[in-house]
């Protein structure tokens, strides 16, 4: 699986994503699923929220497709 990390911080918080783990290396569209784990760290003195978005690109289509969106609470 070709994986590219992309972070667009649209908040005033300073956070980073790391330790991205995939449960498999290849997924057939529509018939299989994969577990994805990412660690999000905040380096600010205040707690806040961040939105983690998962974009997928199918093999023969160049456009990114938003597949999952999750809002998480970050503790300072």
Automatic annotation (TrEMBL):
Keywords, in A-Z order: Hydrolase
A GO term for molecular function: hydrolase activity
Descriptive protein name: Glycosyl hydrolase
